[in-house]
C-alpha cells in the first residue's frame, strides 16, 4: 500500500525541540517519528512505529534462528515473586510500584527473570525438557532518575529479553554463545557500529557477562579499548595487571616521619621531596587509604572497610561498588570517625586498620615487596618504606582505582584508550540465583533433582531506533539503513503540472505492485519543501519525478551519498526493484 | 519453520484448572495457550501468542483498508490530561494510579481519548488536514472489581482503539460507518457469530453508539432482540414505545381512597379488587413512584428526583443510570426521608412531588389521558383515576422500567427476547467532548476555527482469543477457524518405526517448503497421547502419518467435522496446500 504524504499523519518541524540534547532525539522529533508525552514517555507516530516494527522483525528472526520461542508476560506483576528474589527492595526508586483496588502490591516489570523462572518451573519437570530458550519483546518500565535523550533512555521502553535454561554450566556456555552470535547478526543487520565489551557480572553472581555498545560520542557508557588488540571492557570490568612480587630482603626499614600539614597526597609529596631523604618521590610511591562502610543489602549494620590504592590515582566509586556488589557502599560520616578514633583523617595507615580488625583491601599493584609512603595513624605523621608482606598484610585485592588512558591493556597488548558508547545489548550468565530462589529443578535420569542454570540476554529494541538514528544521519536529516527504513523509496513529485503528477502516481503504483514500500509525496507543496522533508525523513532512495519526465527521464538519488542518477522512466521500476532487493 | 512438539514450550494438562468457569478459559489453559500470573493477568505461551498475533494481523489489515494509520502511545500516562476531562476521578477504582519517584501522579491507560485528541491538536492545524483516522493496538489496564474467565475479562489486555477526527457531523457519520463496515469484515473473517446492538451513548454525549456482541450463553452482557426483525439492543438502549395519547374528557374524577396496609403494589391491587369499585385492577393500572437522588459528578449537593413507572414493572437501575448519565444516582437514605416529610413511604404520589418542586419523570407509557392508581401522599391512602395531563403533568419521560421478554419490539416488528453475549467491539460517535476539553480546532477556509468532532472505536483483541475459543470448541478441545489457528496442519507421527518417523519428517518439510504452517508431533509418545493433544490444541487439519504409509497412504482429518480421508502420500502435499489456501 502506497503511503501518501498528503494524508500521512505527519508534520515535520523546522525547529529543533528545545529539550533535545543529542542528534537522534532532535531528528526523530523534527522528522515526526516520535512525540513526547511525559518525562521518559514517548508516543510512536506512524514513521517511528514502522522503524520500531522493522527492528523487532530482525530481532525475532535471529531469535527464532537459535531456537528461541516467543512468549509474553504481563507488564503489571504481583509483588511476591520479586519479594522472593529481593528485587522488590533492591530496585529502589527505579521500580514503579502501585496498589490495586484491594490494596495488593504490584509493580511494572523492569525485567522478567522471576516470571520466566516460575513459568519454566510450572511447565517443565524432566531433564529431557531442557535446554530451552524463551523470549519476549515487551514494554518495560523503569523509573529512571534522569530520563533523557528522547527514546534513548525512557521510562517506558520496548526490550527483547530472553532467558536460557540449561542443566549444566556447559549448556549455559553454549546458550550464551548462541546468543552472542545472534546478537552479532542482529546488530550487523541493523547497520550498527558497535563493540562487545567485557562487563562485570555484579550481584547476579554469574560468570560471563558482555555488553554490546554502539559507538557514539554522545553515549552514556564509558568503556576502554586497547590500542593494539580487540580488548574492550566496561570501566567497571577492567582488571589491573599485577606486577611481579619483589623480594622483601634488603628493603630499607620502615621509618615514621613527622610530616606537618600534609593531609593530601600533593602536600605529602612536596614535603618528602623537600625533606632531603636521598631520593625523589612521586604520588605513585604513596599508598592512599580510603575508608568506606559496607553492609549486606536490606540489613542494618555497617562494617568499616579500608581500601588502599596508589596515591596517583583516585578511587572510582563505580568500580569500587561493582567490585563490592552485592554489598551496599557508603562514605563515612563524622559520627563514624568519632566512633572509631583510630581513624586519623589524612593520616590513616594500614597498621591501625589491621590492629583494629578492619578489613583492608588493596589495589592489585600493591604486591608483596613493594614499599610505600603511607599514613602513620597519627596527626602530621607518615611512614616511609612500609613494605607489603613485611610491615602489613592486606586481606585481599580490589579493583577500585580509576582506569586511565595509557594504562596497560589487561591482555598485555597495547594501552587503553577511553571511548563512549550506548548499551544496545547485554548477555549474561545468570547462573542459579533465580533457580535457587524458586527451586527450579529438573528431574534427572537418575531421578535426582538437577538445579537449572540460567542465562539472561537483553536487546534495547526501542532504544535501537534512536541508536541507529544517532549513527545514521547527516546535517539534512536521518539516513536509515535499508533494513529498518520506514520505506524503500520516497517518490517526490517535483512539479505542479498534471503530467508530472500522473507520472509520479503511475511509477508509485508500479513500484508498489512490485513489492517496493513506497512513500509518495503527492502534496501541493513546492519541490523545495518536498526535498527537505525527504532528506529529513531519511528513506534510503529518493525518486524525483519532475521536469525530466517530458524527456523520458527521472532522477534517482541515494540519500546517504547524495549521488544522483538520471534513469529512463521505462527502466526505473526494474532499476529500483533490483536496488532495494524486492 | 516447522514447530516441533518435541521442543515446543508446551505442556498440555489433563485436568481442568480449578478456577475455570467457562469453556474458553478451561481449554486455553489445558491446551497451553495461556497461564495465569495474577488476578486478571495472564502470560501468553507460544500457541496463545500466535493466535493473538493472527487476530492482530486481521485487525490491522481492515483498519488499513479504511485508511487508519497506526501509532502507539505509552501505557503509563500523566494525570493532567485525564484530570482535564474529569476521567481521572470518574474512572473511580477501575483506574490503576501510581506515583513516580518524584511523587508525580500517573495512571495506566484504560483508553486513550485524551492522548489522541492532544496529539492531533499538536500535529494538525488546517481544515485541509482532516479527516484522519488513527489507531493503536495496545496493552490497556483496568482494575476490574471481578476479573474473571481467564482472558475474557482481564486487568491487563490488548485492545485496538481507533479514533476518527472530522470537521462536521456528516464526516463523523461517514467515519463511523467505515468503522462499522470494517468491524463486520474483521469479525466475519474471525469466524464469529455476533450481533450488532444499539447501545446507549451515555456520558460521552455522542449520538450513535453500537456494540458488537459475540453470541455466547456464558456472556456477561444481556441484550434483547426482536423475534421478527433485525432489531437488537443493549437493555439500556431499549426504548419503550409510547401508546397514543387518550382524550381526557369523560374520564372519571380522581378519588382518594382509604387503603389500609397497602404499601406494596400487590397488597394494593388485592385491596382494590376486593373493594367493590366496579372494575378489576391489575398491577399495570398502578403508577409506582420511586424516589432517587442525583447530582452532577464531583459535586456535593444531591437533588431529589421522582420516577413514575407502571406498577407491574420494576425499576432497572442500569437503565435508570444510563438514562441519567452523566448524573450520579443514589437511593434515598432514612435521613433523606426525614428531611422531606412530604415523602410518605409506600404512598408517594405525583402531587406531593410537584407541590414540593421535585422533578418528576415518567415511563413513556404514561401518556396524556391515561388514568392511574397511585399514592395519595398520606399513610394508607391511594388515589384512583389520577389522569396524566389533567391531575398531574410530568416533567418528562425516562427509560427506567425493566425490559421484559415479550415486550413489543421498538421497531414495531415482533416482540423482544433476551440473549447473552460478550462485547467484542464498540463503535461510538463521541462528538466534541474531548475536542472541547483540549480546544481541538481546525482553521477553516474562512480562517475561523472549526471544533473537531471525534469517534471512538474499540476491538477487544486479546479477549477475542477467548471469544473465538468460546464459539469454536467441542468436547475434545479447541477447533480454531483457519484465519487465526496457530498452525495450518498438525502432523502426527503415529508409530515408532523409523520409516514412519522419516515419512512424517519428509512430509512436514515439504509442507513447510510450500508455505504451510506446520506442527510436527515428533515426540516419543503413544499415538493416543498425540491424538488427544492434537484434538485439544485445535489446529484445523490433522495429518496422521502411521501404518498406512507402508501402503502409500496417510490420513487427513478435519478437526471440526471429524471427517477422515485417506490420501495417497504422493498427493497429500498438493492436497493440503490447496486445502489451506497457501
Can you describe this structure?
Two copies of one chain form a homodimer. Chain A is an alpha+beta fold. Chain A has three domains: 19-238 and 418-470, Bira Bifunctional Protein, Domain 2 (BirA Bifunctional Protein, domain 2), CATH 3.30.930.10; 255-397, YbaK/aminoacyl-tRNA synthetase-associated domain (YbaK protein, Alpha-Beta Complex), CATH 3.90.960.10; 487-580, Anticodon-binding domain (Rossmann fold, 3-Layer(aba) Sandwich). The first copy, chain A, is built from 15 helices and 32 strands. In chain A, strands 4, 8, 9, 10, 11, 12, 13, 22 and 25 form a nine-stranded mixed β-sheet that branches. In chain A, a hairpin with a 2-residue loop joins strand 26 and strand 27. In chain A, helix 1 packs across helix 12, helix 2 (46-65) packs antiparallel against helix 6 and helix 2 crosses helix 12. Chain A is elongated, with a radius of gyration of 30 Å. Chain A starts with a strand and ends with a helix. The mean pLDDT of chain A is 92. The interface between A and B is large, with 52 and 52 residues.
Summarize the entry for a quick read:
2 copies of one chain form a homodimer. Chain A is α+β, with helices and mostly antiparallel strands.
Describe how the helices and strands are arranged.
The structure is a homodimer of 582-residue chains.
Chain A: E1 3-4, H1 23-30, E2 34-38, E3 41-44, H2 46-65, E4 69-70, E5 76-78, H3 79-84, H4 87-90, E6 97-99, E7 105-108, H5 113-123, E8 132-141, E9 156-166, H6 169-189, E10 194-198, E11 209-215, E12 221-226, E13 232-234, E14 255-258, H7 265-273, E15 287-295, E16 303-310, H8 317-324, E17 328-331, H9 334-339, H10 350-355, E18 359-362, E19 371-378, E20 381-387, E21 396-397, E22 416-431, H11 433-438, E23 441-443, E24 449-451, E25 453-459, H12 461-471, E26 473-474, E27 477-478, E28 489-493, H13 498-513, E29 518-521, H14 527-537, E30 541-545, E31 553-558, E32 564-568, H15 572-580
Parallel strand pairs in A: 1-29, 4-8, 16-18, 18-21, 28-29, 28-30
Antiparallel strand pairs in A: 2-3, 5-7, 6-7, 8-9, 9-25, 10-11, 11-22, 12-13, 12-22, 14-20, 15-16, 15-17, 19-20, 22-25, 23-24, 26-27, 30-31, 31-32
Helix pairs in contact in A: 1-12, 2-6, 2-12
